[in-house]
Write a structure and sequence with these properties.
The chain is an all-alpha fold. It is built from five helices and no strands. It is 74% helix and 0% strand. α4 packs antiparallel against α5. It is elongated.
Length: 125
């Protein structure tokens, strides 16, 4: 149990450590700046230049998955609390209930951090 928790913490630390080495931003030329003026502004390509439906779709899907993870974590906290109250002082049931609550809280924290990171990254693009 302690080994599993230790390896989980180490894996999380490694993921966060690797994530800090992000690639440097690259500047690019916007080809629509000069070509979408005047009469050309009504063309389909120029109308769609600001449409970032792909990033909206990615943000929507990721946010939906993170909401589901958050809901499951809250449900598991409730289940752990119910298991704790009906354990009748049995040490193994109490330990199982406490572990359920602990893992659910860790899952909820990870979901909140993932939500913040995803929204930050998507906002940058």
């Amino acid at each position: 149990m302690k080994l599993q928790m230790k390896s989980s913490v180490i894996a999380l630390a490694l993921m966060l450590g690797v994530g800090t080495y992000a690639a440097a931003p690259v500047g690019a030329i916007n080809v629509f700046d000069n070509s979408c003026r005047g009469a050309n502004a009504r063309t389909t390509v120029c109308k769609a230049k600001n449409d970032d439906s792909a990033s909206k779709l990615v943000r929507t899907i990721i946010n939906l998955l993170l909401y589901v993870i958050g809901i499951v974590s809250v449900i598991m906290i409730i289940v752990g609390g119910i298991r704790y109250t009906i354990s009748n002082g049995d040490a193994s049931n109490i330990k199982t209930a406490k572990d359920t609550i602990l893992y659910a809280v860790v899952g909820l924290v990870v979901a909140l951090l993932a939500y913040a990171i995803v929204n930050f990254v998507v906002a940058q693009f």
